[in-house]
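Weekly puzzle thread! Below is a chain. First person to post its structure in token form gets bragging rights.
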Amino acid sequence: MYRPVLIGYFLIAMAAAAVGQRTLFDSRPGDLLEIARLEAEWNRVNEVSDVEGIELLLAEDSYHVGPSGRAYTKRQDVVAQRASRERKGSAGSTLRFIVSNQKIRLFSDVAVVTATGISITTLADGTKRYGNPFRTVHVWEKRDGRWFLTVDQVTGVGR
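Winning reply:
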């Protein structure tokens, strides 16, 4: 008699734990598609240093950790992107990120995205410079029905 009751409690506990953690294979395709779209948009706004786009995507309390290990607040990130846009404009260069191995994991109102990538800078004369490979972790939070990037960590990896 106790054995079926214990098994029942165990199954209920496992189901309750599963409800709190949703992954790529859940029935939330709308959220998965939205996170994938936001990831593509995040790359685009960083490629062109679209300060307004960056401000819209970042949560007010967000932070960014760059390849050097330096941490940036949202305000510091916006200032750095504004300077980057001026440098790119004066040099006539463009930046492109090639992202691969992207994985999106959903947990209630939080999404964790991991990926690898490389940057390519095209100079005014058409010369291409390939940056070092990197790994990235993004944490998106859904607040009041809208997704915001709260953590952006980029780590350089050796070739």
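Puzzle host: Confirmed. Bonus trivia for everyone else. The radius of gyration is 20 Å.
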